[in-house]
Amino acid sequence: MNNNTTKISALMALSLALGGGSALAAAPNTTQPAPLITAAAQTEQAATIKVLVNGAPAANGYKTSADKEPMLALRSLTEALGYELEWNKEDKSAELTQGNLWTRVVTGHDQYSVNKMLLTLGTAPEIINGTLYVPASFAEKVLHAQVTTTGNMVTIVSEEAVKNITERGVITRIHKDGSYPSVQIGGAGLDGIVLNLNDDTEFKSAEGKEISLDDLTLGMNVEAVHSAITTRSLPPQTPTYQITVLDVAGSEAETPPLEVLGTAGTVERVQTTADTTQIEISGTRLTETAPEHVILNITDATQLVDHEGNPVELTELTEGAKVIGFYSPMLTRSLPPIGTAWKLVLETPDAQPAADEQLDAEQAE
Q: Which residues belong to any copy of the Copper amine oxidase-like N-terminal domain (predicted)?
């Protein structure tokens, strides 16, 4: 069997798989013969390809043994890179524009127009279940992005994403599960920024020693080196190259508890006596076992900082202030529970994220 016949059979199987098997569930049509599927075609398998574009997941691609390279969903790829796509139904072509760059992709034709010049990649675009797929080399040769293929993973980084930004913040969320680990800093919920991690992300201590993701905890003050490109989601996401913990190991004030809980919300009450200050926070839990309503005692060892880890004064903790409280699980059984704050992060409304400042400076140049 030649490669074209094998590939068509494989794509038929892939179409059924991507379509959820709806064709198999349909009532049989007795007026037409069933398609002939040979034993060779049945052994042909289409592998699912995971795709990361500028650190964020994109639509899955696929690759059969007859394909020279992975095939990627054109619209998902180009929109993630900031291109505008216009679909022409008549000739099943797509026109892509971004600034001065223009290109045209025609289904079934291994000819890609790049600024009025034709380029061949060895593989023609294909439509599967209404989605147009292009070879992975399209991202590199036509869109001028960096493409890395490792096993069943294709990582694509645009030229703009290569620019680095250094940003400081306090960790409010750590996601270690699955294929896409991440850390959120600079705010909780929809605030701040999500740092997408990969196997190449470096982790360092304040002393310059190599550490790992497992060494990070909520409430740590870190410095992140990440791409200038972010997603349009809330919070935005960005690929991250390095995370450095700024808290000094061995410092009693900066050493977190063995387990850290967190609550983000509004200060409902501040009570100050001659010996202690106590605040009541009501909001959202940052960990599964943390309460949404908690009272925290502030001691001399409690760190008071803003979202970038800069010190703030105790007098700035007033009723109505937005804060994130980090504390150990050692809480009273009262309602609300009472504990001791390890670190309090105060939201300063006039503070501008470091990433925005750096981007503004680059655009001004």
A: 67-156
CATH of 162-253, one of 1.20.120.340, 2.40.50.140, 2.60.40.1120, 1.10.357.10: 2.40.50.140
Q: What is the CATH number of domain 48-160?
A: 3.30.457.10
Nearest to 246 by CA among 226, 268, 219, 271: 219
CA separation for the pair 255, 247 (Å, rounded): 7
Q: What is the pLDDT of residues 184-239, one digit of tens each?
A: 999 999 999 999 998 889 999 989 999 999 999 999 999 999 988 888 889 999 98
CB neighbours (10 Å) of residue 341? Answer: 25
Instruction: Please answer whether residues 142 and 112 qualify as being in contact, where contact means their C-beta atoms are separated by less than 8 angstroms.
Output: yes
| pLDDT tens by residue, 345-354 | 998 765 444 4
Question: What's the pLDDT tens digit per position in 272-315?
Answer: 987 889 999 999 999 999 999 999 999 999 999 998 889 999 99
Residue range 261-346 forms a domain whose CATH class is mainly beta
- Using CA atoms in the order 24, 26, 28, 29, what is the torsion angle rounded to 10 degrees? -120
Cβ neighbours of residue 317 closer than 8 Å, sequence gap 6 or more: 267, 270, 277, 279, 298, 304, 323, 344, 346
| N residues, the chain | 365
